[in-house]
Design brief:
Length: 368
C-alpha cells in the first residue's frame, strides 16, 4: 500500500464521458495554467501590483507563492493567525500603511473560511483581496473563489491531474485565456502507477522507504530560496481532457465523507492528538485532514512504515525572503502549528473501507 495526500488516477477515468469537471473544480475560473503559481503571477500583473507595493501575507506560506512576489519586487509584511478561528479585521488593521496595496488570505487545508469581514475591510481601505483556494475543491455550495478581487486554484492537488492551476478574476473583464498546452504523458503514467501502488500492485512504498521517504517529509527548509524564474505556461492538454471527465460533485462528496471519518476518529484521541477545526466542513472539499499532534514526527515515521505518507503541510515562516518588512516578528501560532500539525490523506481514491483501515493504522502508531 502506498498512500499520499495527492489523489491517484484509476483507469476508469480515462474512459469516462465529458462532464465539464474542470470549470466546477475551480469555481468556474476563466484561465487555466500549468500551476497555481502561474495563475498568481498573471493575477498580480493584471491587478497592477508593482515594485515597492506592500502586501500582507500569512506567516506560513509555500515558497513558490512567495517567489511570485519577490520576482516583481513586491514587499511583504507577514501576519499571524489561527486558521481555526474566523478571520478578523482587527488582526490586520494595525499592519496596513499608505503603501499597502493588498491582503493575501488562504483557505487553509481547503477548509472554507468566511471572508466577509476581510472583504469589507479591503473595500473600506481600498485594498485588493487576493484569495488563495489552492487547497480547496469548489462544489456547488461553496462561496470560495468569489471573495477575492482575484482567486487562484490548484486543481492538480485535488484531482488526479499531471498539472493544473486556475485564475478566477472577479473585477472587470478577465485576462484572455491561454492556449497551446502540450501533452504530459509522463505525468499521466505517474498517476496511474500511484493508483496501482495504492492497491498494493506496485512496491512504491518499499522503494520510497529505502530512500528514507519519511525523513524527506520532515526535512523542512528553514530558508527561502529563489530559484530560476519560469514564466507562466498553459495547462497541459492531458490535464484538460482528464479534468473534463471528472464528476466534481461526487469527488467533493467523497472527500467530505473521508474528512468526517477522520474527524470522528481524531475526537477520540484524547491527549494523543486533536482536530485543528472543531467541526467538519460541509461545502467545499478540503485538501487534507489537519491533525494537531505533539508527537507529529514520530507519527509521520510510524505511518510511513505502513505505506502512509503524511505531510507536514504548515511551513514555518521564511525570514530571509527578499523584501520582507518584519523578519524579526514573532508568529507564535504559525510556529507552533509548523511543529505539530500533519495532513492526513482523505482524497477520493481512498474508499471509506480503506479510510477506516488507514485510521486504524494511524491509531496504532499513535498509541505504540
Amino acid at each position: 500500500m502506498y498512500v499520499t495526500v495527492l489523489p491517484s488516477l484509476p483507469l476508469s477515468l480515462l474512459r469516462g464521458p465529458p462532464r465539464g469537471g474542470l470549470g466546477q473544480a475551480a469555481a468556474y475560473a476563466q484561465c487555466f495554467y500549468r500551476y497555481g503559481r502561474d495563475a498568481l503571477h498573471v493575477g498580480l500583473e493584471r491587478a497592477g501590483l508593482e515594485k515597492g507595493d506592500i502586501v500582507l501575507m500569512p506567516a506560513s506560506m509555500c515558497d513558490v507563492v512567495l517567489r511570485a512576489f519577490v520576482h516583481k519586487g513586491i514587499l511583504l509584511r507577514l501576519y499571524d493567525r489561527d486558521p481555526a478561528l474566523p478571520m478578523a479585521r482587527e488582526l490586520l488593521s494595525g499592519l496596513t500603511c499608505p503603501r499597502t496595496r493588498a491582503i493575501y488570505v488562504n483557505h487553509d487545508f481547503g477548509v472554507e473560511s468566511d471572508l466577509g469581514a476581510i472583504r469589507s475591510f479591503c473595500d473600506e481601505k481600498n485594498l485588493l483581496l487576493i484569495e488563495d483556494c489552492a487547497h480547496l475543491l469548489s462544489g456547488s455550495r461553496a462561496r470560495a473563489g468569489r471573495w477575492g478581487d482575484f482567486s487562484i486554484f490548484s486543481p492538480r492537488k485535488l484531482l488526479p491531474l499531471p498539472d493544473g492551476g486556475a485564475l478566477r478574476w472577479n473585477r472587470d473583464a478577465p485576462p484572455s485565456p491561454v492556449l497551446g498546452g502540450t501533452r504530459d504523458t509522463g505525468g499521466l503514467l505517474k498517476l496511474l502507477a500511484a493508483h496501482l501502488a495504492l492497491k498494493g500492485l506496485l512496491p512504491i512504498a518499499t522503494l520510497k522507504s529505502w530512500k528514507g521517504g519519511a525523513e524527506d517529509l520532515l526535512r523542512l527548509a528553514p530558508d527561502f530560496s529563489m530559484t530560476s524564474w519560469e514564466p507562466p505556461s498553459p495547462m497541459s492538454s492531458t490535464s484538460i481532457a482528464l479534468a473534463d471527465r471528472m464528476d466534481v460533485e461526487g469527488i467533493v462528496t467523497a472527500r467530505l465523507q473521508n474528512y468526517q471519518l477522520a474527524h470522528e476518529w481524531a475526537l477520540r484521541l484524547g491527549e494523543k492528538g486533536r482536530p485543528l477545526y472543531k467541526e467538519a466542513p460541509s461545502s467545499a472539499a478540503p485538501f487534507s485532514f489537519p491533525l494537531v499532534c505533539e508527537q507529529r514526527d514520530k507519527l509521520v515515521r510510524m505511518a510511513a512504515s505502513h505505506g502512509i505518507y503524511l505531510e507536514p503541510t504548515y511551513n514555518p515562516p521564511y525570514r530571509n525572503v527578499p523584501g520582507l518588512l518584519n523578519p524579526d516578528s514573532v508568529f507564535p501560532v504559525s510556529e507552533r502549528l509548523a511543529r505539530t500539525l500533519v495532513s492526513i490523506p482523505i482524497h477520493q481514491a481512498i474508499s471509506p473501507r480503506l479510510m477506516r483501515r488507514l485510521l486504524k493504522l494511524l491509531d496504532k502508531s499513535l498509541r505504540t
